[in-house]
Amino acid sequence: MSDAMPAAAGGEGPVVLSQRGQLKSFAWLSLRNGLLNLITLTLYRFWGKTEVRRRLWATTYLNDEAFEYTGRGVELFVGFLLALVVIALPFLCLVFGAQFLGPLFTLVVILPFYFFLFFIVGLGRFTAFRYLATRSSWRGVRFNIRGSARSFGLAWLGYMLLSAITLGWFWPAAERRLSGRLWGGLSFGDRDFEFRIDEARREKIYGAYTVGWIFGIIGYVVFIVVITGAMAPQLKAGGSPTPTLAEMEVIYAAAFLLALAYSVVFSPFHAAILRSVVSGIGFGDVRFKLRVKWFDMAGLTLSNIFFLTITLGLLMPFVEARTRKFLIGRLETSGGADLNAIGQAQGLPPRFGEGIADAFGIATI
Asked: Which of 59, 86, 167, 260 is the most exposed place for a label (fewest CB within 10 A)?
C-alpha cells in the first residue's frame, strides 16, 4: 500500500456511514466465544474480542467500502500481562500490605494511591482509544490520534475530583471535554478531525442531567430504605449483621431494580451527551449529527440489560453489534470530503493492546 492515495478526479463528495451486519451472526459468535472462554478459563477472550471487532469493522461501511480492523489477539494478551505486572499487582500488594502497618500509614499511603488509580483509569481510556484508532483503517489508510496519555489521565483525575466536590454536577461538562480531547485528537491518514466545543454546547445537557440526578438520589434513598427494612427484624433481635439468604435475595433484587431505574432516568442525559459530542465532531467540511431521543436510548439500554442478564453476559458481542447498528443508523452527515486525496498516517502504531483498560475492567468494544 502506497503512502498516499491518488487524487480523486471528482474532488469532494458526500460521506455516508452505514452498518450492514446481520445481528444473528453476532448471536452465533457470542455462543462460540462463550464456549471457548469456558474451555480456556477466559483466556480466549483476547482473541474473541479481536474477532468481534473484525466483524464489526467489516460490516461498517463508508461510501459502500468497509472498514478493516488489523488488531491481533496476542497484542491484547501481552498488553494485559504488562499492565498486570507493572501496575495492577504492585497496587494490590501495597493495599494488602498497608493493612498490617496501622491506620495512619494506610491513610498516608493508600489515599494518594487511590488518586493514582483515577489517573490510571484515564490513562487506560486514552490508550484503549488510541489502540482502536491505530488498528482501524479504510482503503488501507489507518486512523491515528494525537495527544498524550499522561495529560489525558491528569485531566481525567482533575475532572473526577471536581465532580466529587460538586456532588456530580461538573461531570456533564467533564464528559464533553474529555470526549473532545479524544475526538479532537483523532486523524484519518494525514487529515485531522476537529472538535468544536461551541457547537457541542448548543446541545443542552444539564436539564437532562438534572432529571437523572434528582431521580437517582430518590432511587438510592428508596434502595437504602428497602435494605434497612429487610434487615430490621434481625437487627432488632440483636442478631448478626451478616444478611441471611432471604435478605440477600431482597438486596440483590433491589439493586437490580435500582440499576433498571437508573437506566431509564439517566437515558435523557445519555442521549443528550451523545448528541452533544457528535455535533462537535468535524472532519474538514463534514459535520455529524445524531438523531437519538431519550426513549430510544432507554429502550436500547433496557433491552441490552435483558439480553445480558438472561445469558449471564454471553451475548455481549450481540449487544455490541446491535448498539453500533442503532447509533450508526441514526447518524447523519453533511458536507463532503475528497477521501481519495488522503495520505497515510505518519508514525508507528503502539505495539501492544489496551492492557491498562483490560486489567482494570475498563469497558471497550
From this structure: 167
41 backbone φψ class: left, alpha, beta (φ>0; ψ -120 to 50): left
| Residue 343 DSSP one-character state | B
H-state helical runs in the chain: 23-39, 45-58, 73-83, 89-98, 103-134, 149-165, 171-184, 197-201, 206-236, 245-265, 267-280, 294-310, 316-328, 355-359
Alpha-carbon span 132 to 353, nearest angstrom: 9
Number of domains in the chain: 1
Cα dist from 186 to 143, 144, 168, 315, whole Å: 7, 6, 28, 30
Tell me which residue range forms the domain holding 82: 77-195+350-365
Residue 79: beta bridge partners? none
Cell of 294: 431519550
pTM tops 0.85: yes
Task: Answer whether residue 98 is part of any domain.
Answer: yes
Please list the pLDDT of the chain residue by residue as tens digits (365 residues): 334 334 334 467 889 999 999 999 999 999 999 999 999 999 999 999 999 999 999 999 999 999 999 999 999 998 888 888 877 777 777 777 766 766 666 667 777 877 888 998 898 899 899 999 999 999 999 999 999 889 999 999 999 999 999 999 999 999 999 999 999 999 999 999 999 999 999 999 999 999 999 999 999 999 999 988 888 777 676 656 677 788 888 889 999 999 999 999 999 999 999 999 999 999 999 999 999 999 999 999 999 999 999 999 999 999 999 999 999 999 999 999 999 899 887 765 666 555 555 544 455 55
For 269, the grid coordinates are 442525559
Beta bridge partners of 184: none
